[in-house]
Amino acid sequence: PISALLASVHSIHTESYFISISQKMSKTAASTEKQEFLLDFNNEPRIYDVTNFIKKHPGGSIIRFFIGQDATDAFTEFHFRSERAKNMLKAIPNREPTQEELAKYRGTKETQALLSDFRKMRQEFVEEGVFDNSPLHVVWRLFELVALTVFGFILCAKGHFIIGCATLGIAMGRYGWLMHESGHFSLVGNIKLDKALQTILYGVGCGCSATFWSNQHNKHHATPQKIGHDVDLNTLPFVAFNDEVAKKGNPAFLQYQHILYFSFLELVGLLWTLMLHPRHSVRTKNYWELPFMAVNHFLRLYAGYLYDGTITSALIAYFFIQTVLVVYIFGNFTLSHTHMPYLLKNQHTDWVRFAANYTLNISPSIAVNWWMSYLNFQIEHHLFPSMPQYKIPRIKDRVENLLKKHGISYHCCGYWEAWGRTVGNMKTVGQNRVKSAKQSTKTRKEE
C-alpha cells in the first residue's frame, strides 16, 4: 500500500498540472463573458454583473460557484450579519431581469414554491429571535473548554497519562467545534469579535489557521458533495469517498482505505498543522495566527512533560493527543456527508436541496448533541449556517415538515449506523475502483 500511495501521489500531481493548464485556457476564453447572478430580495429581483468584482471578492473564488445561478440564499446566509457586504453590493452594477432571464434563474415552479416557503420560514425564525446570540451560552462554552483543558493537564500531572491525553484531545476537538461557530459568525454575532475568537480557538485548540478554514469551509457549505466545488471531496491520495473521485486514485491503495482510514486521519492532521495551515498564514500575511498555532504544539508537548519530565513522554503525548483530536473532528464530520449522493461539476441544484439531499442528520440525544456540538443537525446547519447551533433543535420539526410538504426526504439515522455507512461506503468505493481498473486492463488487452 505504501508504494501504491507514492505512485498515486506522483500520478495526481502530474495530472493536476495539465488540468491546471486546461483550466487557465478555459478562463482566458471566457474572460470576455459577463459574469452574472440573480439576487431576489423582497420580491425585487436584480441581476448583478460581478465580472470586475470577482477578483476583489473578500471571500475568494467561492463567488464563481453562483455565476448563472440564483445566489439569494447563499448571500443571505454568508452575509447575514455583514453590513460591509451589503454596502459593497450596492456598488456592483445591476439591472432588472427580463422575464426570460427570470424564468431561467428561478427554475421550475416546484423550485420557486420551495424557495418561497423556505425564505418565509427563515424570516419567521429571524422575527422569533432564533438567530439571536446568547452571551451566557458563549461564557458557558468557553468555561467548558478551559475546564476540560485544565482537567486533562491535572490527570497527566497525577500520572494518568492515557486518560489525561485523551481528555486533552477531546478538549482540543471541542475548541474546533466552537471555532466552527465563530467562523460562521454565529457564536457572538459580532463579526470582528467572532473572527478574533476563531483565530484564538483554532490556533490554540487545533494548531490551525482560521483564515484557511474559512476559505475552504465556505466552499463546502455553498455546494456540499459537488465534485470540483466541495473541497472536502479533494481527499486523494489518502481516500476517495465516491466513485467519481476514485477514478483518479490508485486501486491497489484504495482497496484498503476502509482499513487504513484512521491512519490517514493522523497523516492529514499532521499535514494540516505542520505545513498547509502555517504556510497559508505566511502566504496570506496573516502572521498573527502563527503564535496561537505555536501554543497548541507547546501544550501537547507539555502534557507529556508533566507526566514524567522526559522528552519521550512529551513526544508520545504530542502524537497521541493529535490522534484523538483528528479522529474526533474529522471522524464525526465524515458521518454526515461522505456516504451521501454527489453532484458532478456541471450539475447544480438549489440551496434547500443541497442541504436536504447531500447531508445527513444524526439522531439527536443529550449525549450526541454534546459530542457533536449540535452539528448532528447537518441539514438545518447547512440551511442556516449563521444560526447559533444550540438553537437548531427547536427548528428541526419545522424544517422536516417543510421538506415533506415539497416531497423531499429528511435523511436521519443513528450515530453508530452512520459510522457503519461511512466505513461501508469507503469499502465499496475501493472495491469498485479495483473492478474498474481490472476491466480497463482487460479492455486494453483485447484491443
**Largest sheet geometry:** 3 strands, antiparallel
Percent helix, as a range, is 55-70%
Oligomer: single chain
What is the first-to-last residue Cα distance? Answer: 30 Å
Instruction: Count every beta strand, where a strand is a DSSP E run of 2 or more residues.
Output: 5
Q: What class would the helix/strand composition place it in?
A: mainly alpha
Q: Tell me what portion of residues adopts beta-strand conformation.
A: under 5%
Low-confidence stretches: 2-22, 24-31
- Largest sheet, order of strands side by side? 1-2-3
Protein model, in words:
This protein has 447 residues and is mainly α. It has 19 helices and five strands. It has helices at residues 2-29, 72-78, 83-90, 99-106, 109-128, 135-157, 161-183, 191-206, 210-222, 243-246, 251-254, 257-283, 289-308, 311-334, 351-358, 366-371, 378-383, 396-405, 415-446; strands at residues 36-41, 44-49, 94-95, 361-362, 412-413. A three-stranded antiparallel β-sheet has the order 1-2-3. Strands 4-5 form a two-stranded parallel sheet. The protein is globular. The relative contact order is 0.11.
